[in-house]
Amino acid sequence: MTYIVFWGVLNFQRGFQPQDTDIILASFPKSGTTWLKALTVALLERLKNRSSDDHHLLLSDNPHGIVPFFEIDMYNESSSPDLAKFSSFPRLFSTHMPLTAMHEILKESPCKIVYVCRDVKDTLISLWFFGCAIHKIELDKNLLESMFKSFCSGTVYYGPFWEHHLSYWKGSLENHNHVLFMRYEEMKSKPRDQIKRLADFLDCPFTKEEEESGSVDQILDLCSLRNLSSLEVNKAHKTNNVDHKNYFRKGEVGDWKNYLTPEMENKIDMIIQEKLQGSGLKF
Ligand code: A3P
């Protein structure tokens, strides 16, 4: 898997040609990617003037089926994949690559990049549950211990979390029209504010009429963990050999407190403090 993704990154770097209207949804794995994809799809779908009887895209496919990953789904085999299905604009892509891996390709492009960032300890626990679920094994504390060590040393899939976060954080400071830095915790605590922020950034703000008619809440309800996880397509289907149901668990802030020891907590907090020092990025 890792080997294939590595080729996917190289192929992307060789072959991707950005268009000005492209939207790229980025994240470290298990940071809220599925939610961000669903919200963005719902924001864009509402612009298509569909009747309310039309079947919504999110009801017939999982967000990962609708928004492919560059390095996993598109460029895994070739540097010139068939992009015919992206003939309508804006094109919507996703990635777990750090911004540094896309910098050369995107540096001249005004495309929009949205990054969702999540508390590292919750990300770790989410990844542990996900790993056990997709490999169909019991929750294993030894596995958590070894994942914790990899997180701390930065030897994980997609590299050190601090470099990942900082790449997008700096990108957003350099050009806030190009990179939007979102936080999972803020999306949970202030969903209305955050979805409006996302809509503004994507140049598709809610109109006054939409706000008054409850459109913001409709999108939030449609994309809620409760709703998405109850849909047939997310209960019974797979993408890339992953059962869709595994993308949805608790979605709680601070769930790490149920699993990490105080020593693990302290170690991660110290790493965060050291690595993010002076950047302005805080957890
Ligand atoms: P937990 O494992 O903490 O529950 P990703 O989408 O990047 O793989 O992240 C997965 C995490 O996002 C999981 O967290 C999952 O439950 C949560 N999640 C998935 N869909 C969500 C939604 N619609 N709203 C809020 N959280 C969601």
UniProtKB/TrEMBL annotation:
Cited PANTHER family: SULFOTRANSFERASE SULT
Family indicated by similarity: Belongs to the sulfotransferase 1 family.
Pfam families, sorted: Sulfotransfer_1 (PF00685)
Domain of life, per lineage: Eukaryota
InterPro entries: Sulfotransferase_dom
Molecular function in Gene Ontology: hydrolase activity; sulfotransferase activity
Keyword Transferase: yes
UniProt KW Transferase keyword: yes
Ranges of residues in domain Sulfotransferase: 20-280
EC number: 2.8.2.-
Record's keyword terms, sorted: Hydrolase, Transferase
Name of the molecule in the record: Sulfotransferase
